Amino acid sequence: MSKPLGIGVIGCGNMATHLSNICLKMPDVKIVAVYDSVEEQASKMASQMKCVRCAKASEIFESSDVQAVIVATPNYTHKEYTIAALEKGKHVFCEKPMALRIEDCDAMVDAAERSRLTLMVGHVMRFYSGCAFVKQVLEDGEVGRPIIGNVSRTGWVEVGAWARSWRRSKEACQNSLFESAIHEIDLIRWFMGDVESVQAYGSNFMHPELDYDDCSLALIRFKSGALCTFESGYAFRMGDHRVRVNGTEGAINIDFGSSSAKMITKEGHERVEPLITEEPYTAELRHFFECIKDGRRPLTDGREGRKAVEIAEAINRSAETGKSIRIE
Question: Is residue 120 classed as helix, strand or coil in its secondary structure?
Answer without folding.
Answer: strand
